[in-house]
Amino acid sequence: MAEKEEYEKVKDTGHNWDGITELDNPPPRWWLNALYLSGLLVLVYFILYPSLPLVNDSTKGLLGWTQIREYKQDFAAIEQRRAPYEEKFAQMSITEVLEDPEMLNYIRASSKVLYGDNCAACHGIGGQPPQAGTYPVLADDDWLYGGTIDDIMMSIANGRIGQMPAHDGALTEQEVTDLTQFVIDSANSLPNEAGRILYDQYGCAMCHGDDAKGDKYAGSADLTDKIWRFSDTEEQIRRTILHGVNDGFDPQTRLAVMPQWSEKMAIKLEIKADVINAGEKVEEINWKDELNGNESERLSESDIKKLAIYVHQLGGGE
Ligand code: HEC
Ligand code: HEC
Predict the structure, then answer these.
(1) Same structural domain for residues 40 and 153?
(2) Contact call for residues 123 and 129 (beta carbons, < 8 A)
(3) What domain range includes position 19?
(4) Mind listing the pLDDT tens digit for each residue in 12-65?
(5) What CATH number is associated with residue 269?
(6) Number of domains into which the chain is organized
(7) How far apart are the first and last CA of the chain?
(8) Ligand 2 pocket check: which of 131, 185, 192, 208 to mutate, most ligand atoms within 8 Å of Cβ?
(9) FRET pair for 147, CA 20 to 30 Å: which of 49, 63, 245, 273?
(10) Residue 204, domain CATH
(11) What is the pTM of this model?
């Protein structure tokens, strides 16, 4: 009953529904204070930050804050943290990088992003294309063009376009069948005399080698392993033999193009290799004479170096 008496002391609004009376209590102090404070905060925010939309723009706010400026500042801070690593990396040889766990860690992290942005669309996450036979797997130790860091750098810098001529029209039906069988038998290490003769006769050995193990300069697949660039089915092997790879004259040819990422670096790598082969010094190359400055560069040299290390570590680099 005591409670009821207390209610009665309070003013009511005169509203009454089915015996329920609406009282006229003032709101609690803390609640009112919070309300006033939040109004004040809106005002402060309004003055400091961009707030009121105008016709073409908005009020700027005293702090001059913008989202893009904040992004640029954060980005600059990250760049600053990376700078010492980047400078050190630029001076290091690949061998030194591979022996420096801290640097290797840094390169792994930053090249993963580069790989995701530029390479994963074709080669898949972690070097494993989602559909077999479309793009080469980078996560195994089977390489068309060689698996040393230098080979991989060259693959990325210059791009790769494997060339195998179409043989449609040049071979009889039986010869295609025999050659297909020869390829299947080679993968299973079985001798196949009839196929072997055709293999030599039609110049397959020129690119795939006498031992059919492929040649990294031509990027021709090893036919004796069970790792297939395209497919292990009889039908698909026939297709490769009949229509070739990147044969511009055959509309059914297989297309296999690795884009070029830095013409400039490709030229430099080639010149360096020549100079080293000739027993001369790399430091003595006069790059101004060798490059005309118009070479295309979609990725920087340092990015390609990072990616080569990343790809090399993915599977079995040589
Ligand atoms: C448009 C698709 C595409 C993109 C993007 C691409 N590649 Fe390739 N890459 C290919 C194809 C196709 C081949 C095989 C070429 C051939 O069969 O002759 C290849 C070959 C390679 C090879 C040689 C593999 C071997 O077995 O020797 C390497 C290494 C490689 N790519 C790395 C990369 C890296 C790193 C990137 C990112 C910078 C990249 N690729 C981006 C399509 C692509
Ligand atoms: C001018 C060089 C050249 C000649 C000649 C050539 N090939 Fe090829 N062949 C290639 C290249 C390069 C590739 C790999 C293409 C790529 O991945 O870009 C290839 C791929 C293949 C493949 C696919 C292998 C796989 O793993 O999927 C088969 C099969 C094949 N060749 C069989 C033959 C046969 C049989 C002949 C002879 C009739 C022949 N090739 C002649 C260059 C050649």
Answers:
(1) no
(2) yes
(3) 2-48
(4) 888 999 989 888 888 899 999 999 999 999 999 999 999 989 998 888 899 989
(5) 1.10.760
(6) 3
(7) 91
(8) 208
(9) 245
(10) 1.10.760.10
(11) 0.84
Give the 3-state DSSP-derived string for 172-189, with helices as H, strands as E and coil as C.
CHHHHHHHHHHHHHHHCC
- Ligand 1 lined by 256 (C-beta under 6 Å): yes
Q: Which atom of ligand 2 is nearest to 162's Cα?
A: 18
Please state, in angstroms and rounded to a whole number, the distance separating the CA atoms of residues 277 and 280: 8
Of the three residues 187, 220, 245, the one that is the final residue of a domain is: 245
Most distant pair of Cα atoms in the chain: their distance = 114
Residue pLDDT, tens place only, 119-169: 999 999 999 999 988 999 999 989 999 999 999 999 999 999 999 999 999
Residue 132 CA to ligand 2 centre (angstroms): 17
Domain assignment present for 37:
yes
- Cα(106)–Cα(103) distance, integer angstroms: 5
Is the same domain home to 156 and 170?
A: no
Phi then psi for residue 262, to 5 deg, are -160, 105
